[in-house]
Each structure stands twice: as structure tokens, then as C-alpha cells.
Amino acid sequence: MSGDERKGLFGTIAGATIRNLKLSASTFNMTDNSAAGGIVAYIKKGQTTSTVENCHVTNDVRISTKGYAGGIAGDIRSGETVIRGCTSAASIEMSSDNQQVGGIIGHCGYMGTDFVNGGGMGDTESRTKEETVWDQEW
Fold it and tell me: CA–CA separation, 117 vs 42, rounded Å?
């Protein structure tokens, strides 16, 4: 893969709906600064809302990157995104100090003030093997 590709069950989505998936026994190993996520690496702005619902990532999933990483989504760049009823127990490793990792979402480029109390949003601390439940619309 070239350096600008993203890894996840889905690399990039825009205006898509992903429902009722369980990801297990998978490894996403990035050697560059690209985003990685268990279900989707990158959510970009589309014509309609992107939704990830009732998706689960088990504790035998490994995600490693120098970029943004999340158990469900690595990088969100659309304010019209819904992540609901998802869990992740993925093992996430960061090989760079200047990126973000989260149990559910690694990085969100569009964040409303109501999002602050959601939990699961990325920071520089790894939440390895701690199951996180996310049920928030923003």
C-alpha cells in the first residue's frame, strides 16, 4: 500500500451506513502517519450522514500506526457522523508521540461542545484492552 492509504475493515467512507458487524482476529499495521480503525479508518464529509451502528471489535484485534487510531474509527472529518451502540476492546499501539488514539475514535476534526462528556475520544493515552461503549450522536 502507498503511504497515504488508510487501514480498517473499511478504509474510507463518506455518507455510508455500516451496521451490525463484529470484527475479530485482525491486524492493521501502519508504518506511516495514515489513520487506522477497527471498522473504518477515515470518515469524510459526504452528501448524507455517515453512520456506524452496533459494530463491535474484539480484544484479538491489533491496530498499530503513527497516525490517528481508534477501535471503531481512526479519523473523522465530517460533522455529520453518528456512532451508536459500538464497543471496542482492540489493542492499539502508537509509535509516535504527536498523534491521537482512542478506544472508539482516534481523532475527530469536527467536535461540538456537547461531545465533551462522551468518553472514548482520542488523546495521547492508549486505552488498550479496556472495552469502551459509545452511544452518542453529534
Answer: 23
